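Hi again,

Forgot to attach this to my earlier email, sorry! This is the prediction with magnesium ion bound. I've pasted everything inline since the attachment limit keeps bouncing my files.
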Amino acid sequence: MLSVIIPAYNEQENIENTEKVISGILEKAGIEYEMIFVDDGSSDSTWEIIDRLTDKNPSVRGLHFSRNFGKEGAIFAGLRRCTGDCAVVIDCDLQHPPELIPEMVKLHEQGFEVVEAVKASRGKESFVYKIFAKWFYGIMKKSSNVDLDRASDFKLMDRKVIDALNDLPERITFFRALSSWVGFKSTKIEFEVAPRNAGTTKWKFGKLVSFALNNITSFTNFPMQLVTALGMIFFVFAVILGIQSLVRFFSGTAQEGFTTVYLVILLAASMIMIGLGVIGYYMSKIYEEIKFRPRYIVSIDTKDKERKENNAANGENG
Ligand code: UDP
Ligand code: MG
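Structure tokens for the complex follow:
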């Protein structure tokens, strides 16, 4: 059986259509499936719609978060609770073409344990976003050897991979990179990013920046090494300047005025502060990790509801 995991945050315009399209494709291809909508604490009627769908289509299951925990949490909740032999993660807005799923399943049957759908091109994005993405993926690739430029969250994973991901103890995760970090026999297929079906993108600029910083720091120590490297460069500079000042002092040609002194102090102080900031950022990540808080809290699982109803019908108490 195939599990389709769909994170949804304020997607009331999309849920019904997405369910119809995906179930249509899978039924036509004769693929046995369960469809898990993970409602990431939406504030619109997303959950009511999902809940209604579960009555209509028994293959649909809904998970409801107690608040918005982010797409990562939603994906991992789906992976944790899915029961299929393999699972596909797909966006709710049909930007990931579901027509590819049967092809991905076929590749899985051929023995591939991870089937990654990569973007043929990066689709329509604003100028700022493009620069930002380029910078972010550049750092990621240089420092951790994970090529993410065209990667997406649209992937099929074998049960072995799902279990490996579920066994990872860390809380701050980056699904897109982790699924290649765990290894396994993988292949890629290309897709064109479709425009959003309805609604607007759920990313705000601030959220995107914090997402990028999170992922960089959870995958590489490069920024910390950068601080050390800058420190060394600065040290060389300081030695040269020091020698020069001493020579001038002893030869009696020392400069009056404090321009150099000011500059050096300002530069040194800013470097120290940046360095402390970077270290502080990693420390805050360590702090977050060791609190061992869950990545998400599921407040309703429609499967539990079913079980309770069945138990009640059989005269047991839930
Ligand atoms: N999403 C989520 N939680 C969030 C933000 C987004 O579950 O906090 C889901 C959203 O419902 C969608 C997917 O993640 O199914 C991708 O979001 P979106 O389309 O807004 O991002 P984009 O395609 O613009 O990168
Ligand atoms: Mg989208």
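The pocket of magnesium ion (ligand 2) is lined by residues 91, 93, 95, 196, 201 (CB under 6 Å). The domain at 2-208+301-317 is CATH 3.90.550.10 (Spore Coat Polysaccharide Biosynthesis Protein SpsA; Chain A).

That should be everything now.

G.
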